[in-house]
Amino acid sequence: MTRTRKIIAVLVAAMGPLVLVVLARIPLGGALWASAGMAVLMALILRPIRPPTARVTTPVPVRQDGHAAQEVLGILPDPVIVVGAQERVEFANPAACAIYPGFEPGILLSLLVRHPEVLAVAGRARIKGAVQEVRFALRRPSERFLRVMALPLKTGRMALVFQDETELHRAEHMRAGFLANVSHELRTPLASLSGYIDTLGGHAKDDAAAQERFLAIMADQAARMGRLIDDLLSLSRIEMDAHLAPKTQMDLNAALSDVKDALTPVFTARGVQVQMELPAAPVYILGERDQVIQVIQNLIDNAIKYTPKGQNVTVSLMADVRRQSPGFDQKALGENAPRLQIVEAPRDPGQRFVMLEVRDPGPGIPAEHLPRLGERFYRVEAGKTSERTGTGLGLAIVKHIINRHRGGFSVQSQPGVGTVFTVALPRAQ
Ligand code: ADP
Fold it and tell me: Ligand 1 within 6 A of 294 CB?
């Protein structure tokens, strides 16, 4: 609408109430106020609506001086060193300074870096004009395994980029150790089996009594190999699901009674009793039933193994304990008996736990062995009872299952008094 037309529209709106003075005989004062109001209203209606102005931003100047690149290198967790002309170091990021604290601009590379492997790889990269790499170990302040790449740059400089492979190295070391342990554990019963096979085919060929005895031992060894393989398979299954916390509910009370029934022939044969102190009502936890049963079974089985004839294993359950409540870190054997947290329960303030305690009046475990419980194949007294019957994997399986269930696992033991294993499992809401 043009400006003139807008003025006419405002005047017409203002005239309306004045016309009413003549036609409807309304008072002139009121009509003047009404006509002014109408004029203002029309002017407002016809006011052009401006689109919101876009906010103008000042473009950020791109820094051409290499500071941006240095800033990025500065926060990189991997050490980086830039070497310029005459093998003088131009730049080292904080991660590199942590390894080589003597950095100052212009220092000779050979004065800053004392590792011959690194100097050699830098020299090779210069001569060949191509990327070279090498692995080496740092002994101080703690042992670390690093890979360093020497990258010649177009400007004539060279970048030395380090990568920390300590974790990888550790995992590889553990894997190799684990394989060596498995082979060792299988080799013993296997050697025994093949020895008896030779004997049965040789000088015991016609000795019925010896055959019977040897066959019983062979059956024992075969069963041991079977247990070992079952435990190894269990461990690998649990590890595969480690990141998936169980979401199903199960009644821990009922599971405990089932395990007791299943183990009755075992503890009766040993002349031991298992005493259960359980709440009357069901106790629901978030757990995978088979795995929770395996935890209970491994702990009660161990307790039975170490309990002297005629004495009791005690299993008790507390149905509702918070992480921060004193009951959580209860020391069943008193303040002075050594205690170790094998798996630390999550510190989520809202989470409530069910606590399961398995206590035996056995010989106990010396304090220096506690930190290693839960390691695969670790046995406190190699060569004794547990060596013959156990696989050394029972507590490792418990530890992994509890980890997967986002629970807690601890042990308290006093030589000559006994041992208490405590498991915390998340209570179902
Ligand atoms: P194993 O199958 O040999 O019993 P575990 O992993 O279950 O393996 O236990 C590891 C070691 O911890 C056992 O060999 C034993 O030395 C020690 N141990 C476990 N439970 C008890 C206990 N209740 N009392 C004394 N020592 C125990």
Answer: no
Domain assignment present for 62:
no
For ligand 1, what atom is nearest to the CA of residue 303? 23
Please give the residue that has the higher pLDDT: either 50 or 311. 311
35 & 178 share domain: no
Q: Is 303 in the pocket of ligand 1 (CB under 6 A)?
A: yes
State both tokens at 248: 């199903």
The per-residue DSSP string of 220-285 comes to HHHHHHHHHHHHHHHHHHHHHTTTS----EEEHHHHHHHHHHHHHHHHHHTT-EEEEE--SS--EE
> Which residue from 276, 266, 258, 408 is spatially nearest to 345, judged by alpha carbons?
408
Domain annotation covers residue 217: yes
* Single residue among 164, 193, 227 that ends a domain in this structure: 164
- The rounded distance, in Å, linking the Cα atoms of 300 and 361 is 12
Query: What torsion do the CA atoms of 6, 10, 16, 18 make, to the nearest 10 degrees?
Result: -140
Structural domain harbouring 34: 3-45
| Ligand 1 centre distance from Cα of residue 368 (Å) | 14
pTM: 0.69
The reply to whether 291 and 416 lie within a common domain is yes
pLDDT at 26: 53
Domain count within the chain: 4
The pLDDT value recorded for residue 49 is: 41
What tens digit of pLDDT does each residue of 56-76 get? 444 444 445 567 777 888 888
Residue-wise pLDDT tens digits, 163-180: 999 999 999 988 898 899
Question: Does residue 75 sit within a domain?
Answer: yes
Domain at 344, CATH number? 3.30.565.10
pLDDT level of residue 330 (50, 70, 90 thresholds): confident
Say whether both 198 and 334 belong to one domain.
no
Residue with tokens 């978030």: 286
Q: Is residue 141 part of a domain?
A: yes
pLDDT at 349 over 90: no
CA angle 276, 281, 285 (to 5 degrees): 85
Same domain, 277 and 358: yes
**pLDDT, position 63:** 44
Q: Are 80 and 161 in contact (CB under 8 A)?
A: yes
pLDDT, tens digit, 9 for 90 and up, residues 234-288:
999 998 988 999 999 999 999 999 999 999 999 999 999 999 999 999 999 999 9
Task: Say how far apart CA 284 and CA 56 lie, in whole Å.
Answer: 61
CA–centroid distance, 405 to ligand 1, in Å, is 22
